[in-house]
Amino acid sequence: MARRKNKQDFQDVSSYSGNEGKKRRKGRRARIALQWVAGFLCVVMILFGSALIYISTDVISELSTTSITKDKDQLGIRDDAIVSSVQDDSITNIAMFGVDSRNSEFRGLSDVTMILTVDNKHNTVKMTSILRDSLVNIEGDGYGGGYYNEDNKMNAAYAYGGPELAIRTLNQNFGLRIEDYVTINFVNMAAIVDAFGGVEMEVTYDEVEEINLNLNNLIWEVEDKKNEDYANGIEGVNYPQVLDSDFMYATGDVDTYLLNGNQAVSYGRIRNIGSDFGRVERQQKVLTALIDRVKFFGVTEYPNLVKKLAPYVETSLSIDDIISMLPILATDLKVERISVPDYEAETDLQDIKYDLVYDLENAAKRMSAFMFEEVSPYWEEYKDIVAKTKK
């Protein structure tokens, strides 16, 4: 039989000092708070895990991902090189290649070679275009076991050995630390622009004429490619289609147009106005216009947009890499761009037999200042030049 407690028993049990009672109550509240925090973190982890599953299985399930070597020596990375000597976790450099292809393959000459800098420190996306005719040393393994060590145009590196050799060429010639890439081609670029609903561009009368000329040339190029693939027994290839409605009518000397995919790609291929320098600037304008379009998308629209874009891109970036770069979209981000070479900066620039020859080391220092700003050891020396050359 249990002993019944008397009043004294109850008094004995609760006979703590005031401070001890407070400590007991505080400890109990702390345990409850800890349980709430633990529960909240579990919910966040479940939701985040679900989001990752959704992103990996649905949103980017059609993304063409590849793996490239992580060996820094093979990628041509040196810790003491001009740009790679600067390490800042808030700034990421990615190589972007636009392949000169008339079907859905990710092979060919890299008509576009660009470094995209995601700068979370300054809420800026930066574009550094390396002109395709830049004379560089291409040294490394290529397709089919071939080994190259020759001076050639920058765009040849991708054709020789794909993204790995092209990244190595960028790193070795411009002292960079690039380990990842994104590749698109002309067919895919048109589809990407269409996925964004087109791009708004200011286009001159002469540029409209060149766009129409490039559209007409594309029709013949596609036919030639179809015949070539048919002769080689290649089937099931996605070829671009040019419609009558793609051809433009100039309404004045200069006007603003909403360009669709085929028109935007044809605009970016214009070389008869402003030579290759003008062509690179137009390519940058198209990408800048695409980034500006992103600002008008709501956060809830991003998954659908990414899902549309995924089939048109090949990349070495992982899901985690992509997610880690998304927060910059929620900022009031700026877009800045430079070209290498630039007559304002590379004063020794020469055009020798269609090759652009200039001091690669000085160009790399300007790139370092542009990408890393005050963190770069070349900022003070090159900041005025950067300010003069960036757009």
Automatic annotation (TrEMBL):
Write out the entry's keywords from A to Z. Membrane, Transmembrane, Transmembrane helix
Mind telling me which Gene3D superfamilies this protein's record contains?
LCP protein
**Transmembrane residue ranges:** 32-55
Superkingdom of this entry's organism? Bacteria
According to the entry, every stretch annotated as the Cell envelope-related transcriptional attenuator domain falls at 110-295
Stretch list, region Disordered:
1-22
The protein's matches in InterPro entries, at most eight in alphabetical order, are given as: LytR/CpsA/Psr_CW_biosynth, LytR_CpsA_psr
Q: Does the keyword Membrane apply?
A: yes
Which PANTHER family does this UniProt record tie to the protein? Answer: POLYISOPRENYL-TEICHOIC ACID--PEPTIDOGLYCAN TEICHOIC ACID TRANSFERASE TAGU
What the record says about family reads: Belongs to the LytR/CpsA/Psr (LCP) family.
- What protein name applies here? LCP family protein
Q: Which organism is it from?
A: Acutalibacter muris
